[in-house]
Amino acid sequence: MFKENSLQSYVDSFFDNLTLYDDYRHDHKYKSILKSSIDVFLDNQTELNAFGVYEIFLMIYQITPEDKSQNDNSSIVSHPNIPLDFANLMKRYGETSSGLNGMNSDFIIHSVNVFILGLAIYSQNKNYKHCFKNYVIRTPYKKYYKNSQGEFSDEEFLYRWGIASLFHDITIPIEFMAKPMKKLLNNEINSILNTYGEDMQINLLDFSELDSITKIDYSFSDNYRNEYPTANFLNLFKPTQVIFHRLALDFNLDARKIHLLENKLNDIIENVTFDHGLISSLLILKIYGYILQNYDKNPDFFFYPIVDSATAIFLHNLYRNLLQRNPFNLGQLHPDKNPIAFLLILCDEIQAHHRQTSLFINKKNSLENDLKIEIDDDSLYVNYIVRNPSAGHIHYDDIKNLLDMILSIDSIFVRGLVISADFELQNNIDFGEIIKNEISFRNVEILASMKSEAKRA
Question: DSSP assignment, residue 213?
């Protein structure tokens, strides 16, 4: 049996055990503000409430010229917040182009659900938490968040996971944009940057320009090169090269494999195959690479947490679509290799199905479908509650098989992943809507049988 509001209780547990640096060091109340925004969203999953989570997270972790932590709360929003402005623009363009694809308008809601599910898994599964901590501390990066006792803090996970989950689908509306709309979006982005007086350009129509970080501090990559001499042959102001180096470290790819990876990626680009994970990862590196240089911040903040998040975004589609195929043939992704990418793929696939079956229902303002979760150190149980047969196909076995193929699930859940679906019938089945939405006949049969048995009872 699934506990009622189990996801809410897991989120509560995550925040109960969380200490934010700025809260204990500078007497802010950031944790309670972020928690409140998540609670509001869980109570009512609207796009407005979802974007509220974005706003609070990106204000708390806004990078400013001075140390914003020592000022009052109003100073957080008094400086340019390029990541937040970009997210807001993409939300608006997603709404504009939603007629082309229903998912364009809900990527904000989906991303917040992914964010929350990841917090829940981290909170409830010590195996994953152990993998993440070890991944961070075994690198040369020693600026990770620490709690008031000077020990490794869960805030490091919150930060890296927040960037990865909230931005993993940020460019998905662009997939369906006509060229004139992309040009309009380019103009709006650069208009905002010009208003701020920022010396950075973003061109979504020019991959070579997108795959470049504005060079302000020529010594920006020096510390990283000193730690990793293998990076001396790379252009670390080019996001793809930065990601390739992280992949080489995580998956022990030699120079030949990296060269093949670059060729494969060029083929994708030349064939105009848009992958929103690829574009989103480049934009994150481009934006944060510029901000950190411009405000003279420690380059390690870029080359470790931000690159970690961006690489996870890159991998959330391309691990299975590229790295598990010839000539790389990588096996299941183990959380030790890249814990944020592992979690992003897991949460994205689980929430993607819930997202698919909820689109029609939400538009009709009918009774929403639901998702119930049970998480512990041994198992992950996912139960889809379908309250309307016109919601879409239910292929939960396919989801499990896909995740088992991509991820080493039993590395953190020794008893594995269990996915099920329950149908909770409304009073009437609208067969016109069933046909219109192409629900599988197998599910119609199940629903009809359930309704017949309910009448006999």
Answer: -
Among 249, 255, 345, 347, smallest CA distance to 303 is for: 249
Rounded distance between C-alpha atoms, residue 333 and residue 404, angstroms: 10
- In terms of Cα–Cα distance, which of 358, 376, 378, 354 is closest to 368? 358
Residues whose CB is less than 8 angstroms from the CB of residue 176 and which lie 6 or more positions away in sequence, other chains included? 97, 100, 101, 104
> Helices (DSSP H) in 97-154: which residue ranges?
107-124, 126-137
Q: pLDDT tens digits, residue range 330-359?
A: 999 999 999 999 999 999 999 876 554 444
In 3D, which of 15, 113, 6 has the Cα closest to residue 381? 6
pLDDT band per the 50, 70, 90 thresholds, residue 176: confident
Reference 169, options 243, 223, 93, 253; nearest CA is 93
pLDDT surpasses 90 at 164: yes
Which of 344, 321, 346 shows the shortest CA–CA distance to 407?
346
Dist CA 309 CA 159 (whole Å): 9
- Listed in sequence order, the residues at least 6 apart from 299 whose beta carbon sits closer than 8 Å to its beta carbon are 217, 220, 221, 222, 223, 224, 292, 293
The answer to whether 61 and 68 have CB atoms below 8 angstroms apart is: no
Sheet of 416-423, strands arranged across: 370-375, 379-386, 416-423
